[in-house]
């Protein structure tokens, strides 16, 4: 089985991240899925953007959760990336979940309020895509709430930080038991740490393995050799060339 390819914030190597242009490009490449970040605006609407602050990837200023939808949707989210992308907008969650033939890796990124959590669950159910969604977040309490609301969905654990005093073996044990204890389905391992893990052992414990953001051909080769289940990357075209040749 070849690993699934998720486009990190869409095809963000060639298009402005977390825009419909980047997501359409990932779909055109026949990626298996797309990864994106969800925030709630001040008036409770759900939008797709990575940063809490608007200034890096849009023409706006301020925090997403302190601006209303009309303000956020009026911003240009493409011109920062390069000529030809002017006019790209910050998408709505409903815009993205309407895309066909894709799996969704949805990172809960905004303030972890019940407005955000309940809104995400409601929208996923309304769009009837529960079976295509995997949730991730550093907001573990928000993920726990979503597990209660959407028990049929997949949940991915970002690997805990490896402390300097941890041996390779101990680090793998900590990650594994954290995932199992938290009822996660998938362990997300940064590519730089993948060599520390026995992927077969994780599979034997009932966990899927995703490697995140391989930056070199050697890291892609390692992912293939270790038998990971999925790869999340800024440059999905390079991953597809390697994994599907």
Structure description:
The protein has 9 helices and 9 strands. With 245 residues, the chain is α/β, with parallel strands linked by helices. It has an 8-stranded parallel beta barrel with strand order 1-2-4-5-6-7-8-9, surrounded by 5 helices. The longest helix has 14 residues, at 168-181. The chain is globular and about 50 Å long.
Short description:
Helix content is 33%, strand content 18%. By secondary structure, it is α/β, with parallel strands linked by helices.
Question: What key attributes describe this structure?
Answer:
245 residues; alpha/beta; TIM Barrel; 8-stranded parallel β-barrel; 9 helices; 9 strands
Query: Mind summarizing the main beta sheet?
Result: 8 strands, parallel, barrel
Order of the strands making up the biggest sheet: 1-2-4-5-6-7-8-9
| CATH architectural name | Alpha-Beta Barrel
Total count of strands: 9
CATH fold field value: TIM Barrel
Class inferred from helices and paired strands: alpha/beta
Q: What is the mean predicted local confidence, pLDDT? A: 96
Large-scale geometry: globular
- Ranges with pLDDT <50 over ≥5 residues? none
Range of strand content? 15-25%
Our measurement of the CA-to-CA distance between the termini, rounded to an integer number of angstroms, reads 13 Å
Instruction: Give helix % range.
Output: 25-40%
Q: What is the C-level CATH assignment?
A: Alpha Beta
Number of helices: 9
Number of domains: 1
Order of helices and strands: EHEEHHEHEHEHEHEHEH
The CATH homologous superfamily is called Phosphatidylinositol (PI) phosphodiesterase
Rg to the nearest angstrom? 18 Å
């Amino acid at each position: 089985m070849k690993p699934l390819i998720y486009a990190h914030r869409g095809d963000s190597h060639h298009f402005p991240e977390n825009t419909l242009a980047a997501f359409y490009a990932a779909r055109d490449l026949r990626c298996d899925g797309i990864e994106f970040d969800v925030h709630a605006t001040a008036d409770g609407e759900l939008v797709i953007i990575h940063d809490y602050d608007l200034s890096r990837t849009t023409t706006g200023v301020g925090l997403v959760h302190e601006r209303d939808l009309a303000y956020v949707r009026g911003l240009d989210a493409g011109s920062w990336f390069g000529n030809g992308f002017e006019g790209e907008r910050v998408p709505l969650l409903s815009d993205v979940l309407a895309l066909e033939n894709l799996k969704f890796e949805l990172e809960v990124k905004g303030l972890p309020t019940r407005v955000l959590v309940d809104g995400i669950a409601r929208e996923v159910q309304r769009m009837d895509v529960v079976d295509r969604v995997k949730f991730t977040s550093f907001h573990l309490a928000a993920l726990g709430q979503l597990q209660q609301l959407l028990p049929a969905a997949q949940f991915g654990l970002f690997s805990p930080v490896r402390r300097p005093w941890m041996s390779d073996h101990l680090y793998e044990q900590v990650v594994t038991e954290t995932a199992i204890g938290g009822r996660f389905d998938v362990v997300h391992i940064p590519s730089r740490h993948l060599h520390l893990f026995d992927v077969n052992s994780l599979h034997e414990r009932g966990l899927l393995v995703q490697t995140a953001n391989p930056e070199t051909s050697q890291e892609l080769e390692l992912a293939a050799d270790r038998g990971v289940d999925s790869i999340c990357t800024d440059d999905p075209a390079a991953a597809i060339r390697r994994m599907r040749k």
